[in-house]
Amino acid sequence: MSSPFQRPSGPAEHVERALCVLAHPDDVDFGSAGTVATWTKAGTEVTYLIVTDGDAGGFDETPREEMGPLRQAEQRAAAAEVGVTDVRFLGYPDGRLELTLDLRRDISRVIRQVRPQRVLTSSPERWWERIAASHPDHMTVGESTLRAVYPDARNPFAFPELLADEGLEAWTVAEVWLGASPRADHAVDVTDVVDRKLAALRRHVTQVGHMAELDEFVTGWMRQNGRAHGLPEGRLAEVFHVVHTA
Questions:
Q1: CATH class of the region 17-244
Q2: What are the Cα distances from residue 53, in Å, to 64, 70, 91, 171, 202?
Q3: Cα–Cα distance, 181 to 228 (Å, whole number)
Q4: CA distances from 6 to 86, 87, 97 (A)
Q5: One Pfam match, by short name (predicted)?
Q6: Average model confidence (pLDDT) for the chain?
């Protein structure tokens, strides 16, 4: 007889609701838009929570006060390409995120609102072999989200104002998918939805408009993922470290 404390060996085959918590507009599309497209295709309701407006990004002379609204619009358009209509922003300053109780509370609030069985976020670990994946904002959001998942969102006595003032009951997230992780253990074959992922990425004009070889770069990267994780030759994959938390 199996132990009542034995956790699943892999992620759930299907969930009703998923929440993606990322630092910047375009983070979810570079790392996870193909996966999100497979979820929405299967009927999962997906919400994006973007912690900053990406106002420190871009490659031209766009005034800083215009960049944040532009990138919000780009993210909403990109989300629509993969079937996501619920896109939320917390408005924290791009490039200056810190691990704070306020950030944990704000993510916990959305977890309690959305009540997802699955949360996708960035890995809080520094990846020494691929340092560009370890942007400080990404790591901060990953750690803040994990702390919001456990223990904050599930503990009715954590941030009691969420219940007392906003009526948000505690909620337990069963699994967390960490992107850009040095210990990825799960690959999602996104070959059949790659056109939707690339369409989403092209919506981020302020970030990728200068990249003439965007498609080749992204598909080459995903082809390497597929090969490393045992997919048939030529298949494309996004990869994650799946953590069971329930």
A1: alpha beta
A2: 11, 9, 6, 27, 18
A3: 14
A4: 34, 35, 36
A5: PIG-L
A6: 95
Location of structure tokens 């759930």: 12
Per domain, the residue ranges of the chain are: 17-244
The answer on pLDDT for 4 being more than 90 is no
CA distances 233 to 35, 136, 230, Å, are 19, 34, 8
Q: Are 95 and 56 contacting, i.e. CB atoms less than 8 angstroms apart?
A: yes
Copy the structure tokens of residue 99. 């691990």
Query: Is the CB of residue 201 less than 8 Å from the CB of residue 219?
Result: no
Q: Are 123 and 179 in contact (CB under 8 A)?
A: yes
| Bridging pattern class, strands 175-179 and 17-22 | unpaired
Q: What is the pLDDT of residue 60?
A: 74
Q: Residue 11: which of 206, 230, 176 has the closest Cα? A: 176
CA nearest neighbour of 115 among 180, 159, 76, 172:
172
Residue 142, both tokens: 């990953």
**Pairwise CA distance, residues 103 & 96, whole Å:** 12
Closest C-alpha among 60, 59, 55, 93 to residue 75: 55
pLDDT-derived band at 101 (thresholds 50, 70, 90) equals very high
